Amino acid sequence: MSAYIAHYLVMVGVYGILAISLNLLVGYSGIFSMAHAAVYGIGAYASAIVALNLGMGFWGGLVVAGATGALASALIAIPSLRVAGDYYIVASFGLQTVIVTVFSEWTSLTNGHAGLPGIPRPNLAGWQIDTPFEYVGLAVVLTAFTYLVCRRITHSAFGRVLQAIRDDEIAAQAMGRNVVRVKIVVAIVSSALGALGGSLYAHYITYVNPSSFQLHESIFIMSLVILGGSERLAGPLVGAFILLAIPEALKFLAIPDSVAAPMRQIFYGALLVAFMFLRPEGILGREKAKVKS
Amino acid sequence: MTPLLSLRDLSKSFGGIQAVRGCSFDVAPGLITGLIGPNGAGKTTVFNMITGFLSPDTGSIRFRGEELRGLAPHQIERRGVARTFQHLRLWQKMTVLENVIVGCRTPLGENVLALFLRAGAVAAEEAVAREHAMQVLEFFGLADRAGELAESLAYPEQKLLSMARIYASPAEVLLLDEPTSGLDSEWLRRLVPIVRRLTESGKTVLLIEHNMELVAELSDEVVFLHQGEVISRGKPAEITGDPALNEIYFGV
Questions:
Q1: CB contact, 8 Å: B189 with chain A?
Q2: What is the rounded distance in angstroms from the CA atom of residue B87 to the CA atom of residue B100?
Q3: Could A167 and B166 be called an inter-chain contact, meaning their C-beta atoms sit closer than 8 Å?
Q4: Is the dihedral of CA A231, A232, A237, A241 positive or negative?
Q5: Residue A155 contacts B, CB cutoff 8 Å
């Protein structure tokens, strides 16, 4: 395995965590969020700041990242989901904008556009993570953790209620479910898990700045979910494998760099439109019709 | 007998239309009360007010003496008053069994922290709910369809499923919105005895019925609603035998 492929796999891990956690909202709850890049950034900045300022280790930073991500989404979920699910799109868009502004303007904490360099590489109980290959191991562990947490949640009574709310919200209320509360819990869990992706990213690249967490990142993460398939837990992970491979594949075509970046954007856009028409259920498709006895 | 559910002076208007005016009646425990009246009499509006989907302009709704007015729909179900819908509102993409399990109480399995911290207790609770749901499906004659998607059931079976879902709930009062509408005589023969037996396990039923003959078969007591007002209450025979009411109902 070359370092090149290792780098690709770590990034698949980062985006896999982001997309799987976003899908808990989008696919399993029918709530659209434009703030997952903000959540990603919050995870990255929170763990970077506690590592640089307080000398906190990787696991501690991970917990702080998750808690901060949860808090940020609670701030918008509690007021907006009370009104109606659709307001969350608008509120999350607001959160996305505000958070990126905080990253670039709260210079005493975030160092503004210059960003925060020198984030320490993780040391996990004596195991120093240095090489890309070691990072792949860490990425696998965190992605698996995110996947398993989401699986536990979706394959439970809670997941059943989520599906009931998505199918018919009024019926779920009539059956005694506090729909607003359930949606708020999902939004919080989704953000807490998404922030882990940010934490992994910060400790891998060892540098964060606001440009990595802009609105187009939110849209990119959403396209991983839609392309991979929002009806399956593994769908977004498949989306990450494929969409992150595309720019690498484009490198093999002799396209000048100045053209490659806009080309990539056009390619993503075309791919999304094509999927909407040809395979709206995403690459992985739907779960087989359930037959249980 | 003290009433389980008592409505006093309920009113509701939509714009200039007074859908329900000064509606008062009681639902006695352990009995089936039929709410009957011509189209537009306000029957479903009364249901929507009892279950918190509409808020009354005036009046009170007491369940076991506690005021339900002002509570949200989910709180009212938790207090013990559950309902079906005229348009069923099944979870079409979920299995028949899953539809009924959501009727059961699974507080641990719906607590995200408990899923991770109390996995054993969650599994035990799920097993109990599953078994209860299967018993309910057997009661409604749907046990052999448990694994199928709700949308794959025929309409009369979907109707049974919508009742099974609230029967699985611990709620004591079941509000059935037109349980027999749209069924042919063969299905009616199958469904009427099932409705009659709902009270066997201690449930109390309030149902909306369109058919004057069926309401006599289905209910122990009948409330006749006309233009949003209760104009008569009594035993089914008294109501269905009253020429004045028949005239209102059939317009003859």
A1: no
A2: 17
A3: no
A4: negative
A5: no
What mean pLDDT is predicted for residues A235-260? 83
Find the closest chain B residue to A162 by CA distance. B110
Sole residue written with tokens 């992150």: A244
B25 sits in which H/E element: strand B17-27
**Among candidate residues B64, B38, B74, the one with its CA nearest the CA of residue B204:** B64
- Asked if residue B95 belongs to a domain, the reply is no
Interchain CB contact of B146 with A (< 8 Å): yes
Q: What is the pLDDT of residues A107-164, one digit of tens each?
A: 999 999 999 999 999 988 888 998 999 999 999 999 999 999 999 999 999 999 999 9
CATH of the domain at B72: 3.40.50.300
Closest CA–CA distance from residue A206 to any residue of chain B (Å): 32
Total domains in the fold of chain B: 1
According to DSSP H, which parts of chain A are helical?
Answer: 3-29, 36-54, 58-83, 87-105, 107-110, 132-154, 157-167, 169-174, 179-205, 215-228, 235-251, 257-278
Decide if A163 and B94 are in contact by the 8 Å CB cutoff. Answer: yes
Could you tell me the pTM of the whole model? Answer: 0.91
Q: Which domain holds residue B216?
A: 5-80+171-250
Kindly report the nearest CA distance between residue A140 and chain B, in angstroms.
Answer: 21
Look up the ipTM and state it. Answer: 0.94
Per-residue pLDDT tens over the stretch A27-48? 999 899 999 999 999 999 999 9
